[in-house]
């Protein structure tokens, strides 16, 4: 039914402080999953000890990117973040192109992670209780839970994620202490030595490592829900980058000591032992089976937290694009608590459709239980990470364009030098990802997917730019508002009561 609304009914409520946004950023990077799964895989696939120092390099580079990014956040508050920044820094057509790439990249990350979640829950239940649950059934239930959280107050999600992230940090710190106290070989600082930066495999290390930071840019997405967007977004962004970088560097260093520098970089590790088993086997030996069981549960909640965080990001992009009529305007509807419920429901439905299609495609697959990890998870998360790196490179240029057109008292380091450095670094990482994409995908040899998935994030961007140009003449009122937000509320007839 319709009801009378005020202008604030189409804007999220301001509930979030620095800790809440920081926790949602860190949750998106899934700390325990990265350490137990991502870092172990990076060591073995690249054959390099540079993984820990690689995290430091990435943290510094992304911190430099955040200088200009955060500066723009003090002038532009928009749930569309990348989209709004590109529109105001490089022009409205580029903003439209960026919006499509962002939607695809964030959806790929969010939906792809469900593959890992479904496998982990199914495997855990089977090993603990001897009951076999299809991975897709687990995912469908989780989609419902995530969707329910998405249509409720954002601070509810923040509180849940806060507890999960705190527990993740605790168990990884326990692992780190045990590893530093019980190195398999002799103690060595080589994995964090700056000399490792100059080894031939550093490119592959950076290509693998950058995915661990995906989500750090989300602070700006919550700008319209931040208590003080001019300060909160900046502080949350830098806090998250610093914590993630240091934590991953120390934990992956501890991991190399726990497994042994020779073994962890060996391509000869058996498939049964590679990846997370390296982490959990050491924990079982030195911390006990009960601790491993707790870690296994938290590994699952780590993945779940990442799913929730990326779901919230997608919902807010959909809200922003619906508000500015690049998507149907009904998708800009928010609940009485300020949650963008229409965007949340849209993302939930899309996730359900994609998961069902993958489940049907996996019937009788020779990959067995690992099917959702090797396909849904690997294909989509690598594609999403590639898209987000490309977006950050574009946004680095947007910073330059924005401050050239809107000069203020920010110095050249903020408005020119740091964005140039960030662009060069991110563009290089993007090229490295493309060059190593078959390795990231775990492909023995190049096939059609090696080319199709990268095009999935590039082609829509090009189409979006063309669409944006066409809007200038076909829908000038929409074109003028691209990336600027929509101060006027939806007409009464278009606003539905958000109560379930």
UniProtKB/TrEMBL annotation:
Localization terms from the record: Cell membrane
Keyword Magnesium: no
Bilayer disposition of the protein: Multi-pass membrane protein
Transmembrane feature ranges: 21-43, 49-72, 93-113, 133-151, 160-181, 197-216, 237-259, 279-308, 341-364, 384-403, 415-437, 449-471
Coiled-coil positions: none
Keywords: Cell membrane, Membrane, Transmembrane, Transmembrane helix
Gene Ontology molecular function terms on file: transmembrane transporter activity
Main localization of the protein described in the UniProt heading: membrane
Record flagged with keyword Zinc: no
Gene Ontology CC terms: plasma membrane
Signal peptide (residue range): none
PANTHER family reported in the protein's UniProt record: AMINO ACID PERMEASE, AMINO ACID TRANSPORTER-RELATED
Protein name from the UniProt record: Amino acid/polyamine/organocation transporter (APC superfamily)
Source organism per UniProt: Paramicrobacterium agarici
């Amino acid at each position: 039914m319709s009801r009378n609304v005020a202008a604030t009914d189409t804007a999220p409520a301001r509930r979030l402080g620095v800790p809440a946004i920081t926790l949602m950023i860190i949750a998106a990077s899934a700390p325990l999953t990265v350490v137990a799964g991502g870092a172990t895989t990076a060591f073995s696939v690249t054959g390099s000890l540079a993984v820990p120092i690689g995290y430091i390099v990435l943290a510094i580079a992304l911190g430099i990117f955040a200088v200009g990014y955060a500066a723009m956040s003090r002038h532009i508050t928009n749930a569309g973040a990348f989209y709004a920044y590109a529109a105001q820094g490089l022009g409205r057509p580029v903003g439209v192109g960026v919006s499509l790439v962002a939607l695809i990249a964030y959806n790929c990350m969010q939906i792809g992670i469900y593959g890992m979640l479904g496998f982990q829950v199914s495997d855990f239940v089977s090993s603990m209780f001897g009951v076999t649950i299809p991975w897709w059934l687990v995912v469908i239930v989780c989609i419902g839970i995530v969707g329910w959280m998405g249509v409720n107050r954002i601070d509810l999600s923040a509180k849940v994620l806060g507890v999960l992230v705190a527990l993740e940090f605790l168990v990884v710190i326990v692992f780190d202490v045990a590893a530093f106290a019980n190195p398999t070989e002799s103690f060595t600082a080589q994995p964090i030595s700056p000399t490792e930066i100059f080894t031939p495999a550093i490119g592959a290390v950076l290509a693998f490592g950058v995915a661990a930071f995906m989500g750090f840019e989300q602070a700006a997405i919550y700008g319209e829900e931040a208590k003080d967007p001019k300060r909160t977004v900046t502080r949350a962004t830098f806090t998250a980058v610093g914590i993630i970088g240091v934590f991953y560097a120390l934990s992956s260093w501890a991991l190399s000591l726990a497994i042994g520098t020779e073994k962890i970089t060996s391509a000869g590790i058996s498939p049964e032992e590679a990846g997370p088993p390296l982490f959990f086997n050491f924990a079982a030996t030195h911390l006990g089976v009960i601790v491993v069981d707790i870690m296994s549960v938290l590994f699952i909640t780590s993945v779940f937290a990442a799913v929730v965080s990326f779901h919230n990001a997608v919902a807010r992009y959909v809200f922003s694009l619906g508000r500015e009529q690049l998507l149907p305007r009904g998708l800009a509807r928010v609940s009485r608590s300020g949650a963008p419920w229409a965007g949340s429901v849209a993302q939930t439905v899309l996730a359900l459709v994609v998961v069902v299609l993958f489940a049907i495609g996996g019937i009788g697959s020779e990959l067995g239980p690992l099917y959702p990890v090797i396909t849904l998870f690997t294909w989509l998360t690598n594609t999403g990470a590639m898209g987000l790196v490309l977006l950050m490179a574009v946004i680095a240029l947007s910073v330059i364009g924005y401050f050239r057109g809107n000069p203020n008292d920010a110095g050249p380091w903020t408005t020119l030098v740091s964005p140039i450095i960030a662009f060069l670094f991110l563009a290089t990482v993007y090229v490295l990802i493309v060059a190593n994409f078959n390795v990231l995908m775990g492909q023995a040899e190049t096939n059609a997917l090696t080319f199709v998935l990268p095009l999935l994030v590039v082609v829509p961007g090009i189409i979006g730019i063309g669409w944006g140009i066409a809007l200038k003449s076909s829908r000038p009122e929409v074109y003028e508002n691209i990336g600027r937000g929509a101060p006027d509320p939806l007409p009464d007839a278009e606003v539905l009561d958000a109560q379930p």
